[in-house]
Amino acid sequence: MPPHALRPYLLLGSLFVASLVSCNLIFRKFFLLDIDLLGLSFAQSVGLLPYPLTFLITDVLSEIYGRKRANLVVTAGLLASGFTLLIISLAQWAPAAPWSPVNDSDFNHVFGQTILAVGASMFAYLLAQYLDVRIFHFWKTLTHGKHLWLRNNLSTIPSQFVDTFAVLGVLCWAGEIPWGLFPALFWNGFLFKVLFALVDTPFVYAATWWLRRRLGLGFGEEIPA
Fold this sequence. Notes:
The protein is mostly helical. It has helices spanning 3-26, 52-65, 67-93, 104-111, 114-142, 148-173, 182-199, 201-215; strands at residues 30-35, 40-45.
């Protein structure tokens, strides 16, 4: 990879990994948003908030750096999640000092199910992120590099469906969330992600336009392998 293209790649990759890991750490807090005008009540994990950003980043990486380098960042996120799981496991094993501001009970209450969360997230993550990159390049090839908005949305939306279904299914199966909440949480989460996919389209255009200009790429051109 040319040296001038490495810095944006590393910055995007770092943001991707940070977003993914933070999802796994904060997922146990749920929020309730009442939309009075529509008569709707939206309930979802706060872990949902940073996660759609990962799909925006993989779409930008796929468009500029190609499928192989986008998959490399996805793999890095998988390794980071596994490493986070290991560190949390070691932290739970280490007994808290008598004067520790956070005792074992408090720590385990917050992070006790993080192992399950990371496991479920990694399972869904493998399915969704690699699927997103594959579908994105399928549409890019089919449209000959045109209609970025089409591949951005038609890759993200089905990938988000798979991700939402898989992670909630595993958490319900493991007893972390009652099965009765599955339909509402699934549709709330999926519709939020679809809305984000539609909203993030201008940002994908802006990011790819800026990167093409900065890296001297033509229309539909990727950084050479």
